[in-house]
Every structure is written in structure tokens, then in C-alpha cells.
Amino acid sequence: MSEPTVIELGPRDLLVVAGLPGAGKTTMLRHAAAGLPVLDSDQVRERLRAVVPSSVPYRCYRPVVHAWHRLRIVGCAIGADGPIVVHEPSTRGSTRALLALVGVLSGRSVRLLFLDVSAEEALAGQLSRGRVVRAGSFARHVRRVGKWRGELLAGRVPLGWRSVQVVDRPRAARTRLVAKLLVGC
Hints:
The chain is an alpha/beta fold. The chain has seven helices and seven strands; from the N terminus they run E-E-H-E-H-H-E-H-E-H-H-E-H-E. It has one domain: Rossmann fold.
């Protein structure tokens, strides 16, 4: 069995765990980030689902979920002590630029952990979790990841980011995130 991948987070790190929807980010974070604050849009979605009438489809309040998630990231980056882990596909360049800006404004080092899986693997992951992203939306994610993935595999670090680490699913299963200071949001 291969050695685990240990990613040490400094007290002012903001680690973005990115990849296609269904890549396995949630599964990885469930075991890799034990004890660390993880900001995930699903947390917001669940809060809203509890108060929004069940007759309202998710697509109607999805923009609120994404806006609230990004506001939580900004608030925690500015106000929390210790490292922060963010679950965010980050397939849009504008999202990555926003996260880099959050790092600058909050004095945090923005790091990227990219879960590299094929579109087929990601779709299988969506099916196994029982929540499939609409075909058009998923196709946009896949298209946007295309060029960016090549840059990441070539070792290019996006402007404003401190580091990039790319892992596949088997390596993600062996990844552990550790920090010296564990205070969260």
C-alpha cells in the first residue's frame, strides 16, 4: 500500500479543494479534513432546503446558495483564526480570481488541491451519490476544466495562488490534511 499524502496547512492557509462535480471532493474531505473547518455550498443548500418550500426547485434558489457560500468564504477568511478548507469546483476563471482576491484581502495563502478525474468518473460519482448535475451545466464544467487542467498538470500555479497539488482518486483516498492551529468558523 502506498504512503499517505500529508498536506500541512499553515495558520493563514486557505486550501481550495477543486474538481469536477462528482470527482470525489466531498468523499475525500470526509476523511482527509477531520477536525478542520470545511466550507461547502452543500451546507448552505441544506440550510435553505430546511426553510424553502419543497415545491420550489433547487434551480430557483441555486444563485442564493452560491452567493451565500462565497460570502461565508470571505467572512471566514477575514474573521477566522487558523486554516480554512473550501470545497469549490473552481472551474470558472472568475471564481479562481475571486478566491485569489480573498487571499490578498485577508492575508491568506491560497492553495489549490485539484482532484483530477475524467468526465466519465465524475459522472459515475454523481450517479453514486444520487445527485446528478444537469447535462448542460456539467458539460460547461468539463469544458472549463479542459484548458485549466492542462495548465495544472504542467505545474503552472494560477496568478495569486501560492501552490497547486493535483491528485487522482486513489491518491485522494490516501490524502490527509493537517494543521497546527485548528480554529474554525
